[in-house]
Design a protein that fits this description.
By secondary structure, the chain is an alpha/beta fold. 50% of the residues lie in helices and 9% in strands.
Length: 219
């Protein structure tokens, strides 16, 4: 369980301690990810997420990003975890839309599927996803909410027109360090959030200029 720059869990016990601490602080829910140096099998991964869900009364959303992790959640594990009463959703950043459709087909009545920056949110919502948790929303929140509203209303032509505009930001996230792009974008928007935590580097001048140009299209 990791919030991007907060404490990183080194064990299942750490995750449980953090989950309870966030509930005590007033969190409305938990987004849980498993970071591990060595690959983990299905049973170990399942027990990790079950331990988090058992530790509090909060709803839990699973987060898997196999492009950056050594261990991914298999469809069978996701299916079993979907039976837990407090595991309510999944944010999948696999870039594999077919995998998302498989998750939806198996678990749609128990698990809400969310798009990440690696996916095209409008496409995910078209096949049955319920929303998205992604970088562009940090920089262009109004347009991101507008995309969601258009998809929920089934106004797909308008949604795809907006999606094509928003995708320029996703391309920048894919090409450069995501944290650096978000930090630079927020700075360009007038929010002094500083640079990414080292060893991550700030966005270089060239990409920063491309980002500034892309943001000009949005209010």
């Amino acid at each position: 369980m990791h919030d991007g720059e907060g404490p990183l869990c080194r064990s299942r016990a750490d995750a449980v301690v953090q989950a309870r601490a966030y509930q005590a602080l007033g969190a409305d829910g938990l987004l849980a990810i498993c970071e591990a140096y060595f690959p983990l099998g299905d049973d170990a991964l399942e027990s990790y997420f079950r331990a988090i869900a058992d530790a509090t009364d909060l709803p839990v959303v699973l987060y898997t990003n196999p492009n950056f992790q050594r261990s991914d959640l298999s469809l069978d594990v996701i299916d079993r975890l979907a039976d837990h009463p407090r595991i309510v959703g999944i944010k999948d950043a696999s870039t594999n839309t077919g995998r998302l459709l498989s998750i939806i087909a198996r678990c749609c009545d128990r698990l809400a599927v969310h798009s990440a920056s690696a996916h095209i949110p409008a496409a995910v919502m078209l096949i049955g996803g319920v929303g998205w948790m992604a970088g562009p929303a940090c920089l262009v929140p109004r347009d991101s909410v507008r995309l969601y509203d258009l998809c929920r209303a089934g106004r797909w032509d308008e949604a795809m027109a907006l999606q094509r505009r928003l995708w320029r930001l996703n391309e920048l996230f894919a090409r450069h360090n995501l944290a650096a792009v978000i930090k630079a974008g927020l700075a360009l928007r007038g929010h002094a959030v500083g640079d990414p935590v080292p060893p991550q580097e700030p966005l270089a001048a060239g990409p920063r200029a491309l980002l500034a140009k892309a943001l000009e299209e949005f209010a």
